[in-house]
Amino acid sequence: MEMNRIGFTGLDAGVAAEVRSEIARSRTASVKGIAENLGIRRATLSSRVNGHAPFTPSLLAAVAAELGTSASSIIARAERAIESAEAVAS
Questions:
Q1: pTM surpassing 0.85?
Q2: 10-89 — its CATH code?
Q3: Which residue windows are transmembrane per the record (predicted)?
């Protein structure tokens, strides 16, 4: 798995994209609301959701729970998206 200069991988980007999608599909969740519920700064969560920093496993699990899903489900969808993109590229 290739990393960029800050150690961010394609999987990290995929996870961020999946979290963004989950928030967009939700009628009640927002970055601000999730951050408040978890007791973290909105900017901290926003930087991860927008793909500027990777999620830690514990933060991903907490965010997933707020969204009514699991970290493993988010990661699995991100992996499938990466596999699909690689299949199209080859």
A1: yes
A2: 1.10.260.40
A3: none
